[in-house]
Every structure is written in structure tokens, then in C-alpha cells.
Amino acid sequence: MVTQKITIEPVTRIEGHAKVTINMTAEGKVDHAYFHVNEFRGFEKFCEGRMVFEMPSITPRICGICPVSHHLASAKTGDIVMGSPPPRTATLLRDLMHMGQIIQSHGMHFFELAGPDLILGFDADPAIRNVVGLIQADAGLALKAVALRKYGQEIIAKVGGRKIHPTFAVPGGVNRALSSQTRDEILKNIDEMIAITQAGLAIFKDWAAKNKEDIDKFAVFKTGYLGLVTPENGLELYQGDIRLVGQDGKELEKFDSNNYLDYIAEHVEDWSYLKFPYYKKMGYPGGVYRVGPLGRLNAVDHIDTPLAQEEFETYRAINDGQPIENTLHYHYARLIETLFAIERVKVLLDDPDILGRDILNTRQNFKGEGVGVIEAPRGTLLHHYKVKENGQVEKVNLIVSTGHNNWAMSEAVDSVAKTYITGPEVHEGLLNRVEAAIRAHDPCLSCSTHAVGQMPMIIDVLDQDGNLIKEIKRD
Amino acid sequence: MAKPTVASDWLGGCAGCHMSILDIDERIVQVVELVDLRATPITDLKEPDKAGVTVGILEGGITNTYNEEVAKRMRDRCQILVALGDCAVFGGIPAMRNFFTIEDALKRAYVDTPSTDDSGKIPSNPELAKMTIVRPVHEIVKVDVFVPGCPPDADIIFYVLAELAQGRIPKLENNNLMWN
Amino acid sequence: MAKITIDGKTIEVENGTTVLNAARQLEIDIPTLCDHPELTPYGGCRLCLVEVEGARTLQPSCTLPATDGMVVKTDTEKIHEARKFVLSMIFSERNHFCPYCQVSGGDCELQNAAYDEDMTHWPIQPNWQPFPVDASHPFIILEHNRCILCRRCVRACGELVGNFTLGFEERGADSTLVADLGLPLGESSCIGCGTCVQVCPTGSLIDRWSAYQGKEVEVDSTKTICMGCSIGCGIDVLTRDNRLIRIEGDWEAEINGGLLCDIGRFHPMVEERERLLTPMIKADGKLKAATWEDALKAAADMVSANKGGLTGVVSTRASMEALGAFKALCEANGAQTMLTTEDCQAVSAIYQQAGSDSSPSEGGISDLMDADCYLTFGEDITKDHQVLSFFAKRRIPEGAQLIQISAIPSGLDNFATVSLMVADDQLDKFMVDLTALVEEKSADVEKTASKYHLDISELQSVVDALQAQQKTAFVFGSRKDFSDSAAVVTAAKGLAQSANATLVTTKGNINSLGAAALGYAGAGEVKGTLAVMLLADEELSQCIEQKFEKADMRIVFSSYVSSLTAGADVIFPVMNWLEQDGHFINFDGHILTQKAALEAPGQVLSNQEAIEKLVSALDVKNQMDWEKEVKAFASPVKIA
Fold it and tell me: Is the peptide bond preceding residue B170 cis, with omega within 30 degrees of 0?
């Protein structure tokens, strides 16, 4: 019997619009909790009729935090559609820009979005539990955080002309080359950025040591895990095959993005606007999987850069080599990926081809359809276009990073609500923890709701004996 | 004299304008010295103070009834309302949806896309905000300052914030005026 | 003359000068959208409104003639309000999405006009009625949502190109740009010249290749000449990071005044051929990469071993400098003949017959600008040397007559006042008979008409036109041979004389006349055992390739792989037309300068450098002075 409804609106320190409603029983037990997203724009429809070479400029407007991911995924789709594989220099430059994106987005998330919870505490006063509070509590750390994000943004601007919504990649390649001067500017700050990331890792590990109990009970559950990999199953964020591993960490599938429809389907619930992607062979919801930092680091066997690999080994040892299931370890994985991205920037800049001027393949061998894939900060991003011979887009299908995590986020909210809200007294910090469950995934709700409205969830309500009383769905 | 207070929110946009605000980088320290940041999507206050704020900033255009409510609430609770970015000022890229019926856009997403399985159908829940024609903010409420750009450059945003913080209405012209 | 005062400054201008142009002379900037310096004023956008003392309302300065004593103000509050209003109206009419448009951020005249008026938003909203994107054309995309109905494209297509494909249908808010009577652009009479794209102020008309490649402030621009044919149109080549972005017509170029055809503007954007990057030597039946040193030695050895038995073949896309050096090479090594890739008897006949004329008999571009009667024959100038057809076609609305003699349907069929269908093998005889009619030596139109199966009244109208003593221009060209090419040329000259017309011959490629001036024979057979071929970057037809494959041994200078390089013994990689400097003599005797816009890749050298290397490897001195040779040449047209 529902006696109290708590609403968290909007969920803050995430990208996009979300609202959580928690229905409570008289005994103070959580009856059901819902995760709603209240936005819909309709990119999959209104891109119809546009030219395929405009898509890398339209689709970044799906998201202002990860526009580069959409920009590059879209250009990669265009490469396939037009049959114009880009020259090596172009691929290196796109990869470089993408690393800037990862650094900027992950850096911002850890320090400025999630950071206030970890550094100031879940129960800190909401008026200061934000980036401003960080500045006031530890200006030096705040400035480091700003510097890390700025570094990533400046890579994007230096390579592509602009920090947010650059026009750089086109089907067949990119439109500007990198000068040696610019390369040297980027190289200059690598060590400083590594140090800042390691400071972040230290903060997290310190917090983790003091909050082990929380980490082990805060939204810990089983799913599959998905991400791009190198041919040797190393971490790969720009291009590669998609690898899916099961709950036990063993590989289930490895496939080219152009065949995604053979492996991934999306489930629609009558009461939800955000679809639920899942692994077809295991059906829904058995086939759900997580993406993003936690998902990726469970789906790969190693990382090719030394500092990140060292950290990765420590991380994967947490569960004796088994997949890491704790939602709060998203933050740890995120920092490891940031380290990787910075190291990868150096690898790319040291490649002699990075200064090449052969940056555009103008030859075309029109295929008419293609699926471009990339690992956005939040997870695997797929752009699928069907294009007419005259170059006009006929159909668009987007499976956007955060969408893959839909089931997991619902599960996390439910789990955290039930774990922490155990009595009739519900103080603000407890509600913040429910939000933190969402925040850990670093959802990009604008992205995932390119075509979506609300995102409610299902909660199973159990009595004291664990019997299912009812299953509640939010309309 | 108390510092000017600033609240912001995002409507039917992509968050790029707020990211551009963060692109002022270290200047954020200067800004928080000049103003008091209240409810924003990246702080934990959930709505603009009922007592009102000096400056309200809205990113994103009006795409549904919920956006209309938020815009009206911000207008009620602030003295100077700033429309930030092309979506808020012009409607922006989401306005491309206006070329199609809302019905068609929903059908494409929930029924027709090739990855949607047999469960595909258009959700019809009455709790959901109703979609509307995409419009700029000033179609719903009076806007005092327009800052176009997609997103506006961080230098322009800093200029706007600095002017407002010092009690002046910013004038956008020359290098501060860019629609793309 | 009229004395006009604008914003306090006074100037005296010619009668008929518009207020806008008077202001420009005073360096006062009045914003415009539908106006363009190359097009007749339209007065449609109303952005150029000014205050005129004594006038009740604001006046459009682009169409208002300055009158004596007029006092004008261009910078008042009222005018700024009016401009903002005009712009508001324009923005509300269609759907302008600045965030992702290719020209947004500096290249859009509409956006720039809004910035100049400090517009931060649209006071009036569009109603979001969708307009289509026409992507049916292989080169040009027409985005109706961005069209501001300025009609610059319509005027350009009509006034400048004379094609009249573009127009407007419907009225009021339904006014729409259309091709022909409402066809997709790709299915219409559009010839793909792209002049509309160049004049479009917004991102409504764009080309498929340069989108998102760089704004005008981000690209480099080089003035050079098009090599697509013998006209030598002046072009601006836009490049970025050593990559070709776009080719535009140079409005200030004397020859073409900014006009270009699809061959000049768009064809260079698509290069499918494989590029040669290093010298190669054939060893054991296979071509292997080699150093310049080794390749030069191998080639020099071959030339020395075949002295007296060599044929020199050049592409008429090579510059005077390169051709001069090549000539030195040929002469020093006893070349039996020096051919060109043009291989056309008709063109050769033009040069041969010019040798016996006392002075140059042909005219040039300036004669085509304002003729009242045009007669074309020999080739379809809507396919080759197209810009000449623009000059003729655009005079038709002014009353000019266009007479076409053609054996087969041509692109002029829809434009010609009269088309006479005469078979190629009868062309020379027909022109002789026509000459007789014009000179009234044989007054039997009927008999002549019957002889060539022509309509009598049509033939009569042609005779009348040629007898009318109006300014008449003949345009003759050919890439193929006639059964008696020399006779065709003789007959053409005779007819031109009888009609008191200026004969203009198109000749072939960009340096056809230049090659002739240096003594290259043009058509002919490969003689001897060794062919040294300067193919430059020319794309040869199959029959030309087959002809030159007959040489036993080949030394080839080429930019691209072809069947002729595949069977060569020594290959030298050379620059293409965008990568080197040089001089050329176009069809009407202009000496034009080509300037490099791109850097060449690998070990590629310019035509001139490559030839000169071989010349010195053979211990020959290149003392060829091409300018001196040109002066001594009996040219069919005066060489400036």
C-alpha cells in the first residue's frame, strides 16, 4: 500500500532530463522506483532527406558532451555508405580527436559531476554539493579538474577547429591536416594530465578503501558486457570489432558493426519510451549487457598502454579476475580509460603519419548502406544509415550508448532505493544516493533520447519473506 | 549588496551550451566570485529559488509541455532571462522535427527501426509530457537577452556572464555575435 | 552626368548609374542580397533601401537611377529598422538552419547581413513548412529550404550562360525556383556549368565536393587558367592542406569574365586515374621503380641508339616552356616527326592554311561578345569549348540569330534560330554553295536546298542573315577529321569572307596554337622505332592510345597510368596541371599564365624540368626561345 511518493526532479549532475519517483509503503519500504526521462527530439526521423555528408554535422547536436563521438560515428558510416575508406592519416587524426573527447568527458564526469559525491560526500549540503563547492573546498583540485577537461577540449579544437560541434570528419576522411607546431603543443602537457588523472585515481581508491561496504552493496548485479576491442581483445575506443562477454566474463560473440542486427535487438515496453537493447540469442531481459567504462573493462583482456594496463591489472584483481559488477566501480574504470586515452594521444602523435596531408579519399564506390561504430565515453554508439544513390539519407537508425545501459540503470535505481531507503525517514542524502546510481553510469540522456520520452522502470515489491507481492510498472 | 544569483536549466537541447559554459575553464573561479550559482543542471538544487534569482539562463528550445512549464517557471522567478544557444533562440536543430508529424517521428523510433523487435509499438502513456511543435523560448515567455550560437563560444558566454554579474545588459555584436 | 550626394559626400556620375553603384564609387557600403555586380539589378530583396530626400518611401538603391541633385542617406535609424525587417521577413519565409549549414560562419551573405544589423534572434518565426532537397544532379545540390528567392541563379543561368534552365513558378509564398517546367535539376536542360552555385548567396545551391572542406577564410586561392579546352578560362583554384577544394570562375578574367563550364569547374574534382610517383624502367618485361638518375640514363641510351629514328609526341596540355624543351630534344636527335595528341586533320589544316595567308584572318573572344549573328559548325560547342556557346546563347534574347550547321542532333538544337542538317562529308561543298548564294553568284536557293535536303525557307533565312551586313561571328571547331578537312577549312574561310564575318576556330586543347607555333605537326603517323611522348596529364581517347601504341619502344612522360605507360620502356612521372607554372597560347592568341596551386607528390617533376633533365642527359643545350619562335609563326589569329 503506497503511502508516500518521493520525487527527485530533476536528477542533477547528469546529462539530460531525468526524474525519479519512489513510492513508499507505510513501513517505509520502497514500493517501486521509476526512472523517467522526459525528452524527445526525433533525429531518426528528421534526418531523412538530408545529404549523407551533412550527417556528421547534424548528429553531433544529439549531444553536447559527446558530439565528437556522433561526429566520427557518422563520418565512419558515411565512409562505408560511399565506399570511401579514409587514408591512414585521417584515421589517426579522427582517433586523436576522439581521445580528446574521452579525456574531456571522463575528466569532467569524475571531478565535476560524480566528484562532489565522492569528495564532499553523498550527504553534503545540496547547496554546495557541486563544482562550486569543490572550488571552495579545494581550489587546487578544482583547477586541476578544469585543466584536464580543458586539455581534452583543446585537442578537439586544435585538431578539428572547434571544441563543441566541430566540422572536421567527412565521408572519406577529414578536412584539415595537423601541423607539427600543433602536435608539439598537445604533447607538451601529457605528463601533467597523467598526473591529474592519477590524482583522481588516488582520490577514488582512498574513498573506496573507506567505503568498501557501500561499494559492495550499492547496485551490484550480473549482466553481460559489451565494447569494441583490438584484434587481440585489448581496449579500443575508436574502431574495431564489437565483443560481447557473458556474466562469467567469457566471450559470447565478436562481430563487425555492420552485422549488428544479427546480434542486437531492442525491446519496447508499453510504459517506456527508452528501448531496451539486448543480445538476441539470450532474449530479453536475460541478454542485457552493460557498456561504458565498466562494461568495456569487463569485455577486454588487456590495455595496450603501460600505465593504464598496470591500473587495469589492479582493477581486475578486485574480483579475482571475474567481471567487476559493482556500479560504483564505473568511476574507477572511467579513470583507467582516461589514463589510456592520454597515453594513446602520445602514441598517435608519435606516429609519423599523423602529420601527413593525404587526408581525404575522394574516390567513391557507392554501397548505399552502412553502420559506423565507435566507443563514446558512455558506451558503444552505432549509426546506421540507408542512403539513396543521389546521396540523400533514406533511413536512420541510431543505437546510442546510454540506451544499452537502460536496463542496468533501472536495476541500479531500484537496487539502491531498496538498499538505502529502509525506514520512513528519508533524508536528502539517501535520495542523492539513488541519483548517484544513475550518475555512476554517466548517462547521456539527450543521446539516448534522440527518439525517446520517459524512462520508467519496473520494481518488484517483495514482502519480508522475499515473496513477490507485485510487480509495479510506472506508466 | 548581495551577489547576483544565477539559475539555469536546459530544455530541448543537447547540453552543448552548458558545456560551453564550462569551457570558460579557470574563469569559472572568477565567475563564482561575482555571482552565486543556484539551481543548474550541474548543481544539486532542483529548481530556481521561489524567492527569485537575478539571472535565469535557458538552453534548448520548447519541444514539449514540460519544457513550457520549466520556461514559464524560470521566467516567473528571474529578473533577466537569457536564451542561450540556437535552440533557445531559434528552435535549433530539434526544430527539424517540425517538418514531420509527431506521430511519424514516434512511429519511426518505436516501430520501424530495424533493431526494434516484435514488441515495437508507440508508447501511449498519459503521464508523458506531450510533444509540441518545436519553438524558441521567446514564443512562450519574454526573453531579455538572446545569445545565439551552436553553441556560443565560451568567450562570448564569459562576456555575457561578466556583464550580467556587473549589472549590465550585454550587447552582442561583432565577434560576440555568431549564429553557428 | 548627374550630381548625387550620399551621406554628405557628393559625386558626379554617368546618367543611368544606379544609386547603389554611385555609393560604391564613394566607397559607401550599402548591403545587398539579390544584387550581384555581374548581373542586371533585380530589386527583389529590398535590403538596399535608402532614404531619398523628397521621396515618400524608402527606395531600393540597386535599381534607382541617380538623378542630378539627388540627396541620399544610407545610415539612418529608419533604414536600419527597415533592414532588420527585411531580414526578418526573409528568415521567416523558409527554413534556415545555421548550425550545420556548409556556408554558415562567414560564407553566407544572408547570415552576414544579419550580423551587420546586430540581429540576435528572429522577431518573426517561420511556419516550418518543409521544402525539398533536390539531389538529382551529379554535381549540384539544390536545397530549397535555404533559398531566399533572390533569383541570382535565374539571372546567371539566363544572362550569363544563356541556358535559361532556371526560373520561378507560382506566386507569393508559393514562389519556388524550378528547373525547366518543374523537373528535377538532374533531369532538366541544366548543363552543369555551376554558375548558379557560384552566385548563390546562401547554402541553397552547393556542389557535392566542397561541402565542409573549408570556409573561404580557411582556404588558399590561386589565380590560374583552366586546361579543359583551348579557351583558357581564368579560374580561382581554392585549396587547403595541399588538396583541391573548389574551382571558381574568375570574374576579373578578361577571357571568360567568371564563366566556367562543367568540364572546367567540376570534372577536375573527380580523378580516378592512378598517379605515377616514381620513374620506372622496364626490366624483364616488367616495369620497376627506378631513380631519376637511372631512368635518365636508360632513356638517354635509348634515344642515342635510335638517333634519326624517333617520333616526338606531345600533349597540347603541355606549356610553351615544356614544348620548347621537347623540341630541342627532338631536333638534336633527328626526330622524323613531331606530333601532338590532337591528331586532327581539320586543326592541322587551319595552321597550314594560315601559313599562306598574308595576315591572321581569325577573330577571338571579343568578337563573340556582341555579335548579332552566330554561325556554328564542325563541332557541338555545347559539349566542347562550351563557354563560347554561352556567349552566343545569351545574345539570343537581345535579338541575335544563332545558325547551326550540324550533321547530328546537338545541344544547340533548342537554341538555334535555324538548324541546317548537313552531313560531314558534304560540309565543305555546302559551304562553297552557300558562299555562292550569299554572294549572289548563283541565286538558286531552291536547287541548293534540294541538293542538301534542306528546307527552302530555312536556307533562305540563313542566306538573308549572312547578307544582312550585321556583326557576324563564325565558330568552327573539330576534334575529328572530315573526308577532306583542308577543303572544309578553305570553304569556311571563304564563307566568312563573303558574309563579312569573323571566323573563330576553337582548335583543340589549351596549347594547341602554342604547339603549332613551335612547329608541331599535329596529325600524322608514328615513324621510326622510338616514340618519346610527353603525355603530361592528358586523358587520351582510346583511338589515340591505340595509334601511339604502334611505336616499338616508348619513353613516356606522364602524370597518370594509362595503356601507353603500361607498355612503356622508361617512364618519367610529371606534375599535373594544378602543380606547375607555365605559359600557354589559347585559341584566340592570348598568352596565358598558369600558376601552380598544389605541391606535387613524391619525386614528380614539372614537364619542363623533366624534359630538360633528359635534354642535358643527352648533352644537348636547350636554347629554344619559344617567344621568338612564336613571333616568327604565321598564326591564323593574332598572338598578343
Answer: no
Same domain, C421 and C531: no
Window 157-176 of B: residues touching A by CB (8 A cutoff) are: none
Domain-ending residue, one of C453, C472, C505: C505
Residue B32 confidence class, pLDDT cut points 50, 70, 90: confident
Q: What is the DSSP pairing of strand A241-245 with strand A224-229?
A: antiparallel
Coil, strand or helix at B127: coil
Give the domain extent around B72.
5-95+132-176
How high is the pLDDT of residue A468? 55
State phi, psi for C590 to the nearest 5 degrees: -75, 135
Residue C217 at interface with chain A, using a CB cutoff of 8 Å: no
Distances (CA, A) of A218 to A11, A415, A420, C314, C336: 18, 7, 9, 80, 92
For residues A49 and A56, give the distance between their C-alpha atoms in angstroms, rounded to a whole number.
14
- Domains and their CATH numbers in chain A: 2-38+406-472 (no CATH), 85-221+342-361 (1.10.645.10)
Contact A432 B44 (CB under 8 A): yes
pLDDT higher at A31 or C84: C84
Exposure string over C441-455, b if 16+ CB within 10 A, otherwise e: eeeebeebbeebebe
Cell of C609: 624540368
- Exposure pattern of B117-131 as b/e (b: 16+ CB <10 Å)? beebeebebeebbeb
Cell 548564294 found at:
C437
What count of other Cβ atoms lies within 10 Å of the Cβ of residue A222? 12
Region C37-58: mean pLDDT is 96
Q: Tens of pLDDT along C60-108?
A: 999 999 999 999 999 999 999 999 999 999 999 999 999 999 999 999 9
User: Is C125's CB within 8 Å of B139's CB?
Assistant: yes
- The partner residue sitting opposite B19, judged by closest CB among A8, A64, A452, is A64
**DSSP 8-class letter at C156:** I
Query: How do residues C544-566 score in pLDDT, each as one tens digit?
Result: 888 888 778 999 999 999 989 99
Position A449 scores a pLDDT of: 53
Handedness of CA C392, C393, C394, C399 (dihedral sign): positive
When the pLDDT of each residue in chain A is averaged and rounded to a whole number, the result is: 87
Query: Based on the structure, what is the number of domains in chain B?
Result: 1
C204: its cell numbers = 541553397
Residue A306: exposure state from Cβ atoms within 10 A (0-12, 13-18, ≥19):
exposed
Binary contact (B125, A44; C-beta < 8 A): no
Average pLDDT of the residues in A91-97: 98
Inter-chain CB proximity B89 and C114 less than 8 Å: no
SS3 A389: coil
Residue C429, Cβ density class (10 Å: 0-12 exposed, 13-18 middle, ≥19 buried): middle
Q: Tell whether the model's pLDDT for residue A451 goes beyond 50.
A: no
Domain hosting C460: range is 358-505
- The residues, any chain, with a CB within 8 Å of residue C635's CB and separated by 6 or more, are C354, C360, C513, C516, C517, C589
Question: What is d(CA B153, CA A202) in angstroms, rounded to the nearest whole number?
Answer: 34
Question: Is pLDDT at B122 greater than 90 in this prediction?
Answer: no
**So what's the ipTM on this one?**
0.93
Query: Which chain A residue lies closest to B122 (C-alpha atoms)?
Result: A270
* Per-residue pLDDT at C344: 87
